[in-house]
Specification:
It contains 5 helices and 28 strands. By secondary structure, it is mostly beta strands. The strands form 7 sheets. A 7-stranded antiparallel sheet has the order 10-11-12-13-14-15-16, with no helix packed on it. The longest helix has 18 residues, at 16-33. Mean pLDDT is 88; it is low at 1-23 and 26-48.
Amino acid sequence: MITLKRFSMQGLRLRKSRHIYLITAFVILFAVVHGCTHFQIRTKRSHIPFPSRAKLQPPVAKTIPKTDTIHGDIRIDEYFWLRERSNPEVIAYLNAENQFTEAMMKQTEGLQEQLYTEMTGRIKETDLSVPYKLDNYYYYTRTEEGKQYSILCRKRESLDADEEILVDQNKLAMGHDYFEIGIYRISPDHKYLAYSVDTTGSELYTLIIKNLENGSLLEDEFQNTGYSATWSNDSKTIFYTKLDDAKRPDKLFRHTLGKDVCEDTLIFHEPDEAFFLYVFATKNKKYLLLETSSHTTSEVYYLYADNPRGSFKLIYPRQHEIEYSLECYNDTFIILTNEDAKNFKLVKVSKSNPAKKHWKEIIPHRDSVKIDGFDIFRNYLVVHERENGLQNIRIINLIDQTFHYVTFPEPVYTIW
């Protein structure tokens, strides 16, 4: 299974007006702070007068007090009604706000275009991501000049092979005022692609499955999903999370291709509103991991990826302000945890018996060095550390246990 990061320039184009609004808002704020009723914006071409506030008055939303009591604290929200997305009055008010903004910025259109052209001029519109080799395929995304979204592609065996377009977001976005891809998940046999889309901006994604052999979309479609989904190794079973009313991923479901979505099995429910559910596969594809975590506490379950009908097993029960995450290497789980280690430590344990009493330290806690994360490769463990405010990359040879740090020519740097 592969997880591909989104790569596109849609963020700039789709939000062009939003960026310009922020720039103009700064100009307005500057004028207000300095008590100006007329303000001149100087460009290379002209002097643009700032419109008088006396001539343009912003719309005023009506107030409808709504009282809520939370933890004994009484709160009154006079604008709660503006959350009613289908309310004609809400839509009318938002339209009035947009019209007012457009009128206020009317005389800055030249400057807006100048700034936008300068920003897009610094972007390489026709570009290609670094190909990622997975089994017999090279996966990558590319962008084309004049198009807002990236295109997901792959080539079989060689980068000189014919290109296969898996998803062209530009075509999917046609007819929508808003469009965003949430996740891509390639099945282990490379025959199916699961991807999620949001066409409203609500961050409520619909998960769709595409047959890559004939290009058709399966009837299997999942509403109200989050950013999390993964395949089991049979390439016929997919696990996905769904959101509650607060848009929190709280439920994990299992689906078998061809079955009715209504018959999907609920695998796990997280009732604690502070915790969020995520499901993903280990890098070696041997296990599926279910992680439920808050800002300060986490808990991980694991399932053999060849046995999707099995039960997720708990690694270590949650404890307040104890965090841990893990990856699989051969017959071992590598675990990053902050238990008795404020700056985190790395431990390992046999996957056949991962009880905490069997954990053995790989890198102990250090007062002056924080471990931010780690990556597992076939023969190497890459540890991301931070010391004296700077990031370091420590590479450990898992065969002979020797290690070295990646060196950088400058005394101050940022690792991305």
